[in-house]
């Protein structure tokens, strides 16, 4: 049985970055969260009504409406930055013994990006279609 040396994540790998750090996933999460906050004035009340949760307290959900443009710009900027890191920036050198794992992870990250991008596009375009539902 051979012993495989463990790599220290604080030591930069051959590509110059730190292993185990993927900022694109954090940026995608930031884009999704800021899109959800940006669309609380429109999407959340409709979803709650469709589920059967109603009440006068739902008027308070419009308190975040003045901040909608800020969260929208934040979501789009995070999505563009994540897209740059995923598609345009060269992939880091894989330091694992199984080189196929890096390709699989990168492919899964691309699928997650496209799924979240479609979700974000649907949420950000919802105010255009919201009058048809009410």
Could you describe the 3D structure shown?
The protein is 57% helix and 0% strand. With 134 residues, it is an all-alpha fold. The protein has one domain. Helix 1 packs antiparallel against helix 3 and helix 3 runs antiparallel to helix 4. About 9% of the residues have low confidence. One of its GO terms (cellular component) is plasma membrane.
Summarize the structure.
By secondary structure, the chain is mostly helical.
Keywords:
57% helix; 134 residues; single chain; mainly alpha
Q: Helix amount, in percent?
A: 55-70%
Low-confidence stretches: 7-18
- Count of distinct structural domains: 1
Instruction: State mean pLDDT (0 to 100 scale).
Output: 76
- Portion in beta strands: under 5%
Q: Element order, helices and strands? A: HHHH
Q: Largest sheet at a glance?
A: none
Q: What is the radius of gyration computed over CA atoms, rounded to a whole number of angstroms?
A: 20 Å
Number of strands: 0
The helix/strand class is mainly alpha
Task: Specify the number of helices.
Answer: 4
| Beginning-to-end CA distance, first to last residue | 67 Å
Morphology? elongated
Main location: membrane
Family: Belongs to the MerT family.
Protein name: Mercuric transport protein MerT
Region (Disordered): 1-21
Layout of strands and helices, then pairs:
Layout: H1 23-38, H2 43-51, H3 68-88, H4 100-129
């Amino acid at each position: 049985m051979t012993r495989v040396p463990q790599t220290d994540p604080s030591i930069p790998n051959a590509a110059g970055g730190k292993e185990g750090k993927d900022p694109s996933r954090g940026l995608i999460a930031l884009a999704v969260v800021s899109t959800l906050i940006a669309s609380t004035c429109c999407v959340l009340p409709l979803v709650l009504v469709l589920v059967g949760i109603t009440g006068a307290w739902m008027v308070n959900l419009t308190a975040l409406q003045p901040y909608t443009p800020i969260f929208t710009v934040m979501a789009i900027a995070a999505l563009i930055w994540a897209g740059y890191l995923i598609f345009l920036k060269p992939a880091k050198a894989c330091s694992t013994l199984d080189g196929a794992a890096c390709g699989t992870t990168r492919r899964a990250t691309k699928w997650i990006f496209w799924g979240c991008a479609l979700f974000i596009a649907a949420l950000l375009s919802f105010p255009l279609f919201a009058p048809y539902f009410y």
